[in-house]
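Q: Second attempt. The first request was missing the SMILES, so the protein and S-adenosylmethionine are both included now.
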Amino acid sequence: MPDHDMEKYYRARAPEYEQIYYRDVPERRRELTDEASRLEELVTGRSVLELACGTGYWTQIVSRSAASITASDLSVEMLAEAEKKAYGIPVDFVPADMFEHNFGQQKFDVVALGFWFSHQPRQKFDRLFEVLKTPLKKGGLIWMIDNNPPAEGPTIETAGLDEFGNNYKRRFLDSGEQYTILKNYFSKTELEAALSPFLAVKSLIHNKYYWSVVLKTLGN
Ligand SMILES: C[S@@+](CC[C@H](N)C(=O)[O-])C[C@H]1O[C@@H](n2cnc3c(N)ncnc32)[C@H](O)[C@@H]1O
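A: Got both inputs this time. The predicted holo structure:
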């Protein structure tokens, strides 16, 4: 089931979403560029399913070297932005709720998820990881990137914690419209502890602005 506040927020934010990638902070830009290189290498010649693909920022990077890409998002507004981009190979865009949609018999070498883990309720990580593992080929990999807490600028207001330890934040659109959404942050140790019951960590990079992981299924 979609989280309706989160769904509404991202639908409304679609046209301005990519501002997050173009903030004029050199170290931030460098971390993103370095991750783009790692992702491009990881997916070379591989079939990729990207879930919650948003405006296609990472899809475009994947398209430089992957053999095929299916990119899916719940929001048609996000997908409309994604479809404006040029890609290295054709992208199969699928409007779908990742928690409901069945990608059928098709299995992928890599499942990619950008900036979505931090929005997942801690008490439902098991459901998220089942969704990421189901479309993977045997031996396939999961790639994720997400935020570390803001390192500069005014402290962003925290709207509190729930009984599961999930953090909530206020977010504002350019129009001033306000939303309260779940946004969790993890130290390196917390991240390893959160992931390890479900998946084996192949690599984990925890930088100033972002973290990224490559995961494989346990026992593979
Ligand atoms: C933080 S954005 C990330 C977009 C993109 N992955 C990126 O890294 O730039 C989260 C995305 O999740 C999508 N989303 C929210 N709920 C979803 C669901 N249940 N199934 C699929 N996508 C969903 C939103 O529409 C939004 O595009």
